[in-house]
Design brief:
Blueprint (H helix, E strand, L loop, with lengths): L1 E5 L20 E2 L2 E2 L1 H8 L7 E6 L3 H8 L9 E5 L5 H9 L7 E5 L2 E3 L3 H10 L4 E7 L8 E4 L5 E5 L11 E9 L15 H11 L4 E5 L4 E3 L3 H12 L17 E2 L4 E2 L4 E2 L3 E3 L4 E2 L4 E2 L3 E3 L4 E2 L4 E3 L2 E2 L4 E2 L4 E3 L2 E2 L4 E2 L4 E3 L3 E2 L4 E2 L6
Parallel strand pairs: 1-4, 1-6, 4-5, 8-12, 14-17, 15-18, 16-19, 17-20, 18-21, 19-22, 20-23, 21-24, 22-25, 23-26, 24-27, 25-28, 26-29, 27-30
Antiparallel strand pairs: 2-3, 6-11, 7-13, 8-11, 9-10
Helix pairs in contact: 3-5
């Protein structure tokens, strides 16, 4: 049994963070995002290989994951010759596969029980199973209607309020049978959502939905990227370091250096190699990545700092996401939910 992670997107909504870091490997605390999806797939003993379908900066992703030794699964990389859309990417990555395939969109953070989804797929002898998740504001999404027996009835693209009949959306997780892939044309862009799934409904093939009411978020915007960190701090999603750590206390790597006189206010996270100097204040919902340096008397709160960045003496940094290898000057003031790209230099006394 194979799994395919669709990790070829350019992450344009997360720019400038994704100009040098593909979205599948943006850090969530101390781990590349894709690790969290791989953790879920490892719960399915039958999956013997995870295929990463890549297109944008594939070498950077390979540098992070290698052959999968550190993940506990066997990884294989497939690079699209050109962007093929979700359906085309699945067919291209699945060449030679004969058994059931689990597919994840490369921007979904979820606690779904993948084993339960596979069981339903097999019980119903389905050609395809789609995971749905309920949302509070159905007008903002395309909706998926189901029959009373769980079969998928139709897809509604961002309906008007008077057209809403359900609140379930496509969660970007599928279980598919490769004997249906012959309808996907080769070497052209093809959408699984807009073409493949409707074909199953038109042909009256067994296409069922699994509704998951657990944690789910699309990390593809800065707002959602910040939200997933807050949710993990607040114990709404217990993955990665928070699978064992107490989210109500500061989480500090044993390889970080915290000088005397530093204030740590939970919840906060400090990764290995970070150095926080005397008099600094690390406030709630702050994430300091690997080898970040925080100078004396700096004040950080509600801020995510990527690795190898330096925060200058007496700087006040509340609210932004700061990329890799940045330098925030002394006495600089940043009080906004801004996004600062890699290698940015903010000179002393700058105010944003």
């Amino acid at each position: 049994m194979k799994a395919i992670l669709l990790a070829g997107g350019k992450g344009t909504r997360l720019r400038p963070l994704t100009l040098h870091t593909p979205k599948p490997v943006v850090p969530i605390f101390d781990r590349a995002f894709l690790h969290y999806q791989i953790d879920l797939l490892k719960q399915v003993p039958e999956i013997d290989e995870v295929i990463l379908s890549l297109n944008y900066q594939p070498r950077r992703i390979e540098e992070v994951f290698g052959d999968g030794t550190g993940t506990g699964v066997r990884l294989r990389y497939v690079v699209e010759p050109a962007p093929l859309g979700t359906g085309g990417a699945i067919r291209y990555a699945a060449q030679g596969a004969t058994g059931t395939i689990v597919v994840f969109n490369g921007d979904v953070m979820t606690s779904v029980d993948v084993n339960a989804v596979v069981r339903l797929h097999r019980q119903r002898q389905a050609k395809a199973t789609i995971v749905l998740t309920p949302v509070d504001n159905p007008t903002a999404y395309g909706l998926v209607e189901t029959e009373a027996d769980g079969r998928v009835r139709r897809f509604l693209e961002k309906p008007n309020p008077d057209e809403i009949t359900c609140n379930t959306i496509n969660a970007g997780i599928y279980v598919l049978e490769p004997d249906t892939f012959d309808r996907i044309p080769k070497d052209v862009s093809y959408s699984i959502e807009r073409a493949y799934f409707p074909s199953l409904i038109e042909r009256q093939e067994m296409f069922v939905a699994y509704v998951d009411r657990g944690y789910w978020i699309d990390i593809g915007t800065p707002e959602k990227y910040v939200q997933v960190h807050r949710d993990m701090f607040d114990g709404k999603f217990a993955g990665g370091v928070f699978a064992t750590a107490d989210p109500g206390k500061p989480v500090v790597s044993p390889d970080a250096r915290i000088e005397d006189g530093v204030e740590l206010h939970a919840p906060c996270f400090i990764d290995a190699g970070a150095h926080v100097k005397s008099g600094a204040r690390i406030g709630p919902y702050t994430v300091l990545g690997r080898s970040v340096i925080v100078e004396e008397s700096a004040n950080l709160e509600d801020t995510i700092v990527w690795p190898n960045t330096r925060i200058g003496q007496s700087a006040i940094v509340h609210g932004p996401i700061i990329g890799r290898n940045c330098h925030i000057g002394r006495n600089a003031v940043m009080k906004s939910a801004s996004v600062i790209g890699d290698k940015t230099l903010l000179t002393d006394y700058t105010t944003l």
